[in-house]
Amino acid sequence: MASLDGHSAAGMMLLAPEMAASGMPPVRSVYVTVDDIDAAVARVDSAGATLLDPHGAAFSIMQPAS
Predict the structure, then answer these.
(1) What is the tens place of the pLDDT at every residue in 10-64?
(2) Is pLDDT of 5 > 90?
(3) Secondary structure of 10-64 in the HEC alphabet?
(4) Which value, in Å, is the radius of gyration of the alpha carbons in the chain?
């Protein structure tokens, strides 16, 4: 786990041997934390947007457990 100013900011892990053996390439996953997931999804939808970065890679939004 990587941190920034004492807060979790990123995580990293090795590709599991069985995943590598199956030919799966290394991947990255991006998560953005939001306070209200329903509002965030509505805002994305109303803007006609998608959860893709400029290169077409997907990213995810998540709401922390209360």
Answers:
(1) 888 889 999 999 999 888 788 888 999 999 999 999 999 888 878 888 888 889 8
(2) yes
(3) ECCCCCCHHHHHCCCCCCCCCEEECCCHHHHHHHHHHCCCCCECCCCCECEEECC
(4) 15
Give the pair of three-digit tokens for residue 61: 């939004």
Domain total of the chain: 1
pLDDT score recorded for residue 26: 85
Domain boundaries, position 39? 2-62
CA distances from 21 to 2, 6, 36, 43, 64 (A): 27, 36, 39, 40, 34
Q: Is 65 helix (H, G, I), strand (E, B) or coil?
A: coil
